Amino acid sequence: MKEIKIFHNALKDVSALASKIKENQKKIIGYLCSYAPEELIYAAGFHPMRLFSSKSDIILAENHLQTYCCSLVRGILEDSLSGRLDFLDGTVFPHTCDSIQRLSDIWRMQGRYEFFADVILPAKLNTQSARTYMVDVLTRFKKDLEAAINREITDADLQKSIKKFNLIRSNLSKIYALQSKKPGIIKGADLYAIVKGSMIMDKDEVANLLPVIVNNLEKTDAPETKGKRIVLTGSICDSPDIYSVIETAGGIIVGDDLCTGQRWFEGLTLEDDAPLVAIAERYMGRMICPAKHSSPTARGENIVSLARKNKAAGVVFLLLKFCDPHAFDYPYLKEFLEKEGIKTLLIEIDDQQQNLGQLSTRFETFIHYI
Amino acid sequence: MSDKSSDPKKINCAKKMRDIMTTYYLDAMTAEQNNKQVAWITSGGPVEPLVAMDIIPIYPENHGAMIGASKMGEDLCIKAENMGYSSDLCSYARTDISIGGLPKPDMLICCNNICGTVLKWYEVQARYYNVPLFILDTPICHTRYSPEVAKYVRAQIDEYIIFLEKITKRKFDYDKMAQVGKLAYESQVLWQKVLNTTAHKPSPMSAFDAFFFLALIVTLRGTQIAVGFYKDLLAEMRQRIKDGISMVPNEKHRLLWDNLPIWYRLKWLSNKFSDHNACLVADTYTSAWCGAIKYTDKNNFLDSIAEAYTRIYLNIGVDQMANQVLDMIKFYDVNGFVMHSNRSCKPYSFGQMDIMRIVREKTDIPVLMIEADMVDPRNFSHSQVETRIDAFMEIIKQRSR
Lengths: 370, 401
Ligand code: SF4
Ligand code: SF4
Ligand code: SF4
Hints:
The structure holds two protein chains of two kinds.
Chain A: H1 2-12, H2 14-23, E1 27-31, H3 38-43, E2 46-50, H4 71-81, E3 90-94, H5 98-110, E4 115-119, H6 128-149, H7 155-181, H8 188-200, H9 203-219, E5 228-234, H10 240-248, E6 251-257, H11 262-265, H12 275-285, H13 298-309, E7 314-320, H14 324-339, E8 343-349, H15 356-369
Parallel strand pairs in A: 1-2, 1-3, 3-4, 5-6, 5-7, 7-8
Chain B: H1 13-29, E1 38-41, H2 48-52, E2 56-58, H3 60-69, H4 73-82, H5 91-99, E3 107-111, H6 117-129, E4 133-136, H7 147-168, H8 174-196, H9 207-219, H10 224-243, E5 253-258, H11 266-275, E6 278-283, H12 301-310, H13 318-331, E7 336-342, H14 346-349, H15 352-362, E8 367-372, H16 382-400
Parallel strand pairs in B: 1-2, 1-3, 3-4, 5-6, 5-7, 7-8
Helix pairs in contact in B: 1-9, 1-10, 3-5, 4-5, 7-12, 8-10, 13-15
Bound molecules: iron/sulfur cluster (3 copies).
């Protein structure tokens, strides 16, 4: 499909992509976590772009972060220090894990880009005071953005932005739903490219392309495959190879709990509410990340229902080494799933390097066994 | 005191402290028989309302430190790994999750002002013990304490009290709270004064002693016992200064320590530095329990603790942490800085390299960074650390010539 090709091409060279965006007079604001309020950034006229590591060797970041820091955080710092992110006009750090919190300090002290903001959202998402605080923080962030652009961000701006993101999100949901319904209609690597592309490409372009892809997929018949249905869970998965390895081993990815996946795009922002309240509500209600709290068993219940809904035969944990929030949840999520008869596999990944040969053996064994 | 030892360096209050801690643990162990409730609380959490409600606070982190000091860390960490917990997680959490052994909690109080780890750790325990969990969410203050944060945390202090009332089925006693608040404040002031005595040359105690004497300010803050004890300890330190007793017999070099102690190597490290005539006079860790008193209003305790608990050492930006380090370097007049890069504690350790850079830029003292873990000895390379300490001390000696 040529629309999908566009996504693949966009991922090949992020700085070329960035230059293209800048040609349209758009400034680029980078962020590292799916709790960054993109709608606000976009409403301010900026292009919000999720940052991924280019996976280059760690040289300069060695002077700032020890080896026991997750490879994503180290990799992105390396990119910044070595100038690979010089296209950025600013960055936004929401409250997330301890590692990103400290990265925020290191990043701010470097002062490489014009705009910088910490958006310290609450860590607990289940109380009224947290809800109020969330709106307060978003309001403050809006003011910071307004100061940067020297104009007011109106409700109309916000509503327009929310509409755009809802359109993107609902189409991504549709693609996932179609894949779950007709497994194999889209290749894992394509799924990966579409989601990642949606996080970094020009939003108008994404909003135009996705409905076409949905349309095409709706008309496509389910392929004759006997692949085992797999759900992925973890923080990010920034490796198209992992998707292909799973497929070669006989699996089909039918859903995920990744912040580069459904956790990022599921759930729409209400369009008729006060915009900031609506954005806050979405964060309070959506699939929770382990760096946040809603109840001690929220993620367990969630992964079980996700696996059931997608009739998954197995769940694969893709955990980045040194990622505390996810590592803490692993034993209990595994227990919850296994109680339901759903098999699990733990893959510890390093964003910088992957041993695909070894991975494929492990996937083959697992998929054979489920 | 009856047990005056022949070693003049020995601090007499140590025995008193051990006795107090034993009584405290016995009380906690028999809480159920005595119809008392037990709360597990994070080391940076607001314990005072618990004390006011006559609930016994238990600190799994303190327990983790004891496990580390008694060299049981490795076995317990391995046990946690067999349960599926990655070896990269905080070793306090790993040992606590695997050992149990503490009096069963009736409730869990988790304040995330020290890290995100405790949030996950307390969720694990909330599932295991199936008891209510209260989270005091203190947003990190990278650059400032904003009005939004102030409002949010203050609201949670009230929620905390409602939570306690619900679990104990008793009304919160605000008068008692005011009293407890005053005692907590007083003990923190005393603790700060104890720590300050090491500015004297030679220093009457070392950071290794501070690591030990810290237990009371953590566990019994808000009680008369803590106040009484730290008064005695302060008096003893002052007496030692008067009598010219120093912890390191021939103190020539004064060092500052950063990060948690390496519990299973305390004695060795202490001797190692002492052999070089160096005293670790202060550290960034033990002062965390009094570093925020400037935000505490003892006459308006509940209102002020929102800020005091939010702006503690780990919950601020790395540049602010560096400023505090610089202040300590000056105040204690140290001539070397030893940083423990602690695999267990990411919020404490990430940013250390920037602090090191800042210290190097702003002072002329040498900085040493050693890689270890506070409880898990598998991450400690004895010979490597020894060589590095020796080399570092050589530099310090050369400079002081
Ligand atoms: S896993 Fe959670 S904290 Fe980490 S980047 Fe994703 S949303 Fe953010
Ligand atoms: S992978 Fe884990 S440790 Fe790394 S940035 Fe994401 S949440 Fe933080
Ligand atoms: S050692 Fe560090 S990570 Fe572990 S509980 Fe303490 S502050 Fe948190």
